[in-house]
Amino acid sequence: MPELPEVETTRRGIAPAITGKRVTAVVVRDHRLRWPVPADLQERLQGQRCQAVDRRGKYLLLRFPSGTLLMHLGMSGSLRTVPPATAVLKHDHIDLVFDDSLALRLRDPRRFGAVLWAGENPSEHALLASLGPEPLTTDFSALHLYQLSRGRSAAVKSFIMDNATVVGVGNIYASESLYLAGIRPTRPAGKLTRNDCERLYTAIVNVLTAAIEQGGTTLRDFAAADGQPGYFAQKLNVYGREGEACHACSTPIKALRIGQRAAYYCAACQR
DNA sequence: CCCGATTCCTGTAGGC
DNA sequence: TGCCTACAGGAATCGG
Known about the structure:
Layout: H1 4-18, E1 23-28, H2 41-45, E2 52-56, E3 59-64, E4 67-72, E5 78-82, E6 92-98, E7 102-107, E8 114-117, H3 126-129, H4 142-149, H5 156-161, H6 171-181, H7 194-213, E9 254-258, E10 261-265
The chain binds a DNA duplex (16 and 16 nucleotides) through loops.
């Protein structure tokens, strides 16, 4: 399930492989993603050189002279760099072929991902315009969490998973961050103290940073551009560990549903 | 504005 | 073994 660390791992994998290379072919085998893949992708990209691969939240931004290609991995998407002749498997929906020698191949079984053309000012694109701060930059802070949460009754877990609060925190890292911060996921966001927000801020930054260092979390589908899994799953404290012992106090981890999503926490360590 | 529920999709796991 | 159902979740969208 690609969250920020998985998308960043993907970015780091594909950027050196395609930056500076020219698109020689675009193959769209299935245009039915979250939104239809633009029919004019080939003519927009043909002959264009990829200038950079950036990331905004969980979106990858492939920069070309004529504009930016937005890619989102949804929940089951992955990007690999493969020789163009590599056998196509089920769910391999799109190839961007570079210099006739390398294909950037999008695989997405559940098709929740997106590939969209954003033009020359992608930050003005509707999908990017209202995103909150990047968690690993100085745009994000404890004060931001504190101020934005005032008067909010939603559970803090829903609050930090909202991309308007901060980008990149999905279901796994939300539970992990709240565990590290010692905060129950059900707490109304508006009841967080300044100190809570300090600990939550630090926890989010630390957990995302550590996950990137491990190449992300592979539970089932996720793989980096070279096909390798991420190893952060070995470091999870609460996610998916219902009934297992808390690493700190041995209390069995509890699970519940918040906003139709599984949440995991230690009732002893988190208040 | 805010918030919770619904929706999209397919593979997998669990129950019987 | 096979069939059925529930569940996984990013995030837009909708209804209250």
